[in-house]
Structure formats: C-alpha cells, structure tokens
Amino acid sequence: MSQKLPDDFFNWLVELRRWFHQFPEPAYKEEKTAAKICEVLEGLKVPFQSGVGGTGVVAKLCAKQKGPVIAFRADMDALPLEQGNTVPYKSQNEGFMHACGHDGHMTIALGVIRWLIENRWRQNGSGEIIFIFQPAEEGGAGAMAMLESGIFDSEPVEAAFAGHMYPEFPVGHIGIAPEVSNAAADTFIIRLKGKGGHGAYPHHCKDPIVAGAHLVTQIQSLISRELPPHESAVLSIGRFHAGTASNIIPENAVLEGTLRTLNSEVREQIIKRLQDVVQSVARSFNISATLEVMEGYPVLVNDPRLVKHTLACAGDVLGTDNVHTGLPKMGAEDFSYFCQKWGGVLVGLGCHDPRKGFKCGLHSPYFDIDEKVLDVGTRLFGQVLIRYMEN
After folding, report:
1. 137, 251, 333, 370: the active-site residue
2. CATH topology of domain 184-295
3. Does 2 have pLDDT greater than 90?
4. Which CATH fold topology does 7-182+299-390 show?
C-alpha cells in the first residue's frame, strides 16, 4: 500500500473541496466553479482552455517523452437541493448543494495534477493526460456538449478514467463493475385529460386523478411481472401534479417519472408496455392520455482492459481486500459518452467514515464525505494514470 499524502498536501485538498462545497452551481452555470479551477491551474502552471461545452475546463499535462494520450474526467455541477446538515462549509448558495460528490471529484482531479507535478512526471514520464472538468452531469449531458465542441477531435485519446463517490463503501475501499457499470436513463411524462367539475358531483366529471392513481400502481407490475428475475430495471414516478383546490376535480393531471435499464431490448420492451398500460387506463376511465419518452444517458460500459489495469493498481495502492467488483448501479452517468468514444472505466470511491458507518446516500440533503477520500482518490488515480503510460 502506498504512503498517505503529506499533511500540507492533504490540507490543501480539504480546503479546496470545502470551497467548492460552499459555492455549488447548477448545470451550465458553473462560472464561479470554473474560475476557481482555472485559478488553481494557473497556480500550478498548467495550460488550460475554459468555456468548453459551455462552462467546461480542459487542462493538459504533457511529459517530455512521447506516449499515449489519456483522459481523466471530473464533473462540476451541483444539485437543486437545499442542504440539510450543518457544517462549517455549508452551501452559501440557497437551494443548491453538492449532494453527489462533484466537489470531491474536482478536488481529486486537481490533486492528481499536483501529485504528478510534484512527482516530476512531466520530466520523467511519457505521454499526455487531458483533465476534463465537465459541466452539467446532472441531466444536462455536459459530456456530450464537450465532445461536440470539437476540442478533442485532434486528440488520439485511447482511454478515459473517472471516479465517483460511493457512500455505501467506507473510505479506503473502491468498487468497480467488470463491464456494465451504470444504467441508461429515460424520462417520461404522462398527460391525462378528463373533465373537470365540482368534487361533490364526481358523476358529472371524468376524474384524471383517480386514473392517475391507478396508473401509478399498475406500472409497478411492468418490472415485477414483465421482466425475467435476472434482468434489472427501475420504473419510478417522481412527480404527480393535479388540481388547484380540495373541492374541484381537475381537468388535467401530469405524471413524470424515470426509467432505468441495462440493455436496449429491456428498454424497448418496457416503453412499449408502458404505452399499452397508459392507453388501457385511459379507456377504462374514459379520459385521454399521452405518453412522451425523452431518451437520456446511455448505458455506461466499462472497458474490461481498463478494469483489469485499474484493479491491479488499486490492489497495490489500497490493498486487495479493499478492492471490490460488483453489480451495475441503476443511477445514470454521462461519463458513458466518453466511454463510448474512447473506452473508459468509472471507479466508485468509498467515502463514508468507517467509525460512523453508512448514513446518507447520494442526492440526500444530508450527504457528506469523509475527506480522507481526497487522499485516497489522488493517490489511486495518480498511480492508475502513470502506470497506464508505463505499460
């Protein structure tokens, strides 16, 4: 196992992460965040380009000797969520919070850059590492926006790496999926139109709320009774909006939800059956209904070659007992676009305090990390990158 970072280096990481945590910004509005990243890069004397794909920043670290070109991605955006826990570095931007660990991801990426510089990789190593600070991971497809900017068209990137906070594991442990890592995500909207009227005279109305309530319960069977037990999918309603007063049956109701799948065949099957159920409920309650499906991020597939490399490095850095392989996550990740283009691997970084155990998951208003993960992530990815070049 490799030695921990010096105290001054670790304290620098903590201070940086806490700054990012205090100033969370939503997708494509990460101006202050990007400016801070650029400030740090300037201090490290690393060339960069800002404004990529909106607010993204791309930095390059080049060694003297020629070699492969690889990439490391860190996402920048925060969630529209009011922070619930009270900490000295609590969010100062009301209504926004780094509840998915992106503050840690950015910090680790900058930590890896400093680690490489202080270990004289530029003088003694070979190749080029592109550090991608990406906007809009939380639903804005910032990875696609950066790819479409054309900035990477002339770069022969042959591998991409990224880390993501994994609060289910204690700090010092990591998890990697051997192949399929994260689900594809689709958003759907169901609009129901009935006939409004007085709540005391429902027989004069066609109630979209009752129809919608039946729909919510019926669609659950699409996963439990339509798919083989060994297949995985998630279908959840996250929003059900209807009505304006307690004594008025409304004319319209809107349901919004998410569908998560691990392969295209299951996705097509569930969408078809969802359409069938929506129309069946509409006929049963004599109302009209429409289903709109908006395709989201694709399945994230880890490159088995890069998985093998990363597992070997992680075993040396963290100890083999702390390195785990496992099943895919049903959460989506737009790092999948980089993986489709270049081949890549996403590493789950354990980040809960082992003394306290797992408390809160990603996207919780009480989510926080054990900041020792900043040390772990910096050392781990530093080794993953330089050893890839050496091999």
Report:
1. 137
2. Alpha-Beta Plaits (3.30.70)
3. no
4. Aminopeptidase (3.40.630)
